Amino acid sequence: MNPLRSLILAAAGNDVIRRAVAAAPVSRDVVRRFVAGESTAEAIGVTRRLVDSGLTVTLDYLGEDTTDEDLADQTVLAYLELLEALRAEGLAGRAEVSVKLTAVGQLLDERLALTNVSRICAAAQESGTTVTLDMEDHTTTDSTLRVLAELRGTWPTVGAVVQAYLRRTVEDCARLAGEGSRVRLCKGAYAEPGEVAYQDKHEVNLSYVRCLNVLLAGDGYPMFATHDPRLVPIVDARAAHHGRKPGSFEFQMLYGIRPDEQRRLAELGHTVRVYVPYGVRWYGYLMRRLAERPANTAFFLRALASRS
Ligand SMILES: Cc1cc2nc3c(=O)[nH]c(=O)nc-3n(C[C@H](O)[C@H](O)[C@H](O)COP(=O)(O)OP(=O)(O)OC[C@H]3O[C@@H](n4cnc5c(N)ncnc54)[C@H](O)[C@@H]3O)c2cc1C
Prior knowledge:
Helix content is 53%, strand content 13%.
């Protein structure tokens, strides 16, 4: 892995650095590029703007690796408030939610996470929308897929995420590509060891293409989460090859990244979903976005240096 990326991902787990970054006034401006705000109202405002411009949305209430039951409960309550607001604002048809199981107690107890995420799924159904379970580091993959299978027993539209950098993923795609199954394919954002994950970018891209073919050949609803200018046209071409019409798969990109490309794809008739994170616990998320692209890190460091 690129040494800068490893360094930034290591900083993501360092509490001293976290406090320094969170306290820097400039963080606010940088965070705003990637994060919709801290409150439900701000998240709804951004969602409205994106929906009005022809995009769809998945909202993530930021937080992860919770080892505190009360914090897990607060996360559930934040999602319930959000889902009610989406319904009240008439946005539930165009906006769903993404949930990290470690934010609702997975590290404490898988059953607690299942109970908590079930409350979110029930509220989503009541509001007329769906839930996707984000995928986190590889130590959680099996547990997350078990929880997914249980949830799908009651709410078949719950979406899964698979990460192309994991060696196992092409087989997971084959297992998850059944009828009605919503599956997001991404490259993967965590620092993973060579035994479980491809380390070379080219190998990750090849894996992404193998996985997208499996998902497009299946009977599910694939969701292609990538900003990669080489992969987007490959998705398009392979979708045509598999006889997929717009509406039978979608593109997904992160809030603040390649917004022009998001609009371009939507104007071509594709469903494009923007992943919109919000909330006060933005640190880990921001660090992963910076790690993905040296230019983002340089922008952040320059801004810090010019204001301190
Ligand atoms: C909707 C969505 C949901 C996701 N959910 C998960 C999840 O559940 N679990 C998980 O592990 N990961 C998730 N990810 C993150 C994903 O795994 C990657 O880390 C991230 O998307 C970058 O990969 P990429 O495919 O864009 O390709 P990369 O190889 O990282 O980038 C390719 C090109 O895209 C552009 N680009 C990429 N990132 C940036 C950036 N930060 N700023 C500016 N330009 C950029 C650049 O042109 C770059 O050259 C998600 C991503 C998206 C879009």
